[in-house]
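Researcher: Quick test of sequence recovery. Tokens follow.
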């Protein structure tokens, strides 16, 4: 094909699809290339898509009978774990029931395919209905460069040319390295492995067990015993008739401690709280994939150059500061902003870095980079031994004392707490932790 596109988008995940939908609605001629059989076919992740950007892309998405999402989140829980107990911070609020929802649970194979259909609808409604394409089952081997400027892509023996390229290839960002925006492999201590099982229940059983009403849902994060001493944490999200249960684990720590993700997930499932939650369920899916830790040092040295923008996890845009695991919302916003920058570049007929650097500026001004920059200390604090082990252990220790009633004099809660602190940490260590937490959060 000799015809040139305004833009080629590499990757049919959340970032690439959001960029493509924005391009189509701005009447741009583009090619979206996805290596899977369909968008989402190779994406094994899932979780909560936070924020309101989905409503901007697909207005009133919640009114669709067969939308791409599973449930909206109106119940949030953070659980500290030791070997026998859990102690949770639990928050449920009626205000979460109002659309547009603040968070929706998605299974990516279903969600990405649904969003891809929205892209095709936008293509069909544009002036380039016969000239813009979603091309699946194609692997991009190379971004074509001339004088250090992107001019298209090569797949096998075929070349496709364009004025610009948006790289949204995901965390295994080989093309980002090829074009020189990340010139070495990211250290293992900046990368994590996510492992997950999807467990099916009768829908009424699931809704009764997790106290769900209609399409309401719950997100639950776990800290402590869940990972059996390996740096990381656990999660449980409720889908329509399944739950997603899994762990996010430090690759470096697993390697050094000679532990496998599968063994750690089985360990997690033996905890009494988890065993009760999954009782009677049927495992219907098992998957694992690499994710960024949210450390800004893992980001490419820049997100633009002549003819190129980097979006989503290819740019390592992800954060877990203890409040929520955010990645899909970052991917969506970065994809939208990248496409809007390309639209402006076309208006000026200038795709040089002098114009495309606007993407970096608007991304820095968005909540994505503001949060990543503002909460780096919280990301690092969450991965310390104190937060991973000592705090969950002393909280559960205190909880066992506080909530256990015996036919004997009951100590004051202050004495219980000081005893738990002495057994698992020290008052000075917790004072230091509190000072760091105050600064980081």
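Model:
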């Amino acid at each position: 094909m000799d015809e040139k596109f305004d833009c080629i988008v590499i990757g049919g995940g959340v970032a690439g699809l959001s960029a493509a939908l924005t391009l189509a609605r701005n009447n741009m001629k583009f090619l979206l290339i996805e290596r899977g059989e369909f968008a989402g076919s190779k994406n094994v992740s899932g979780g909560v898509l936070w924020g309101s950007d989905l409503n901007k892309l697909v207005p009133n998405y919640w009114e669709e009978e067969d939308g791409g999402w599973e449930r909206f989140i109106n119940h949030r829980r953070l659980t500290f774990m030791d070997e026998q107990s859990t102690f949770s911070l639990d928050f449920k609020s009626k205000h979460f029931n109002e659309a547009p929802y603040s968070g929706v649970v998605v299974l990516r194979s279903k969600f990405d395919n649904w969003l891809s259909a929205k892209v095709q609808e936008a293509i069909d409604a544009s002036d380039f209905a016969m000239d813009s394409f979603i091309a699946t089952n194609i692997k991009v081997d190379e971004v074509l460069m001339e004088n250090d400027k992107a001019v298209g892509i090569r797949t096998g023996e075929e070349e496709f040319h364009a004025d610009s390229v948006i790289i949204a290839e995901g965390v295994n960002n080989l093309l980002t390295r090829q074009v020189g925006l990340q010139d070495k492999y990211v250290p293992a201590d900046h990368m994590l492995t996510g492992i997950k099982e999807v467990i099916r229940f009768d829908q009424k059983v699931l809704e009764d067990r997790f106290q769900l009403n209609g399409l309401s849902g719950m997100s639950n994060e776990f800290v402590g015993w869940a990972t059996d001493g390996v740096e990381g944490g656990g999660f449980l999200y409720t889908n329509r008739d399944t739950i997603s249960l899994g762990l996010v684990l430090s690759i470096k720590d697993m390697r050094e401690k000679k532990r496998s993700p599968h063994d750690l997930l089985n360990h997690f499932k033996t905890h009494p709280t988890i065993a009760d939650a999954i009782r009677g369920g049927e495992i219907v899916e098992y998957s694992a994939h690499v994710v960024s830790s949210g450390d800004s040092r893992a980001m490419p040295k820049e997100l633009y150059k002549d003819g190129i923008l980097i979006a989503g996890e290819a740019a390592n845009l992800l954060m877990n500061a203890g409040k929520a695991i955010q990645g899909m919302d970052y991917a969506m916003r970065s994809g939208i902003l990248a496409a809007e920058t390309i639209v402006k570049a076309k208006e000026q007929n200038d795709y040089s870095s002098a114009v495309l650097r606007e993407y970096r500026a608007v991304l820095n001004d968005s909540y994505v980079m503001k949060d990543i920059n503002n909460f780096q200390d919280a990301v690092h604090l969450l991965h310390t031994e104190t937060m991973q082990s000592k705090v969950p252990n002393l909280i559960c220790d205190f909880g066992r004392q506080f909530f256990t009633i015996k036919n004997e004099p009951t100590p004051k809660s202050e004495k219980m707490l000081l005893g738990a602190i002495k057994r698992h940490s020290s008052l000075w260590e917790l004072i230091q932790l509190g000072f760091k937490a105050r600064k980081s959060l």
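Residues 384-440 form one domain.
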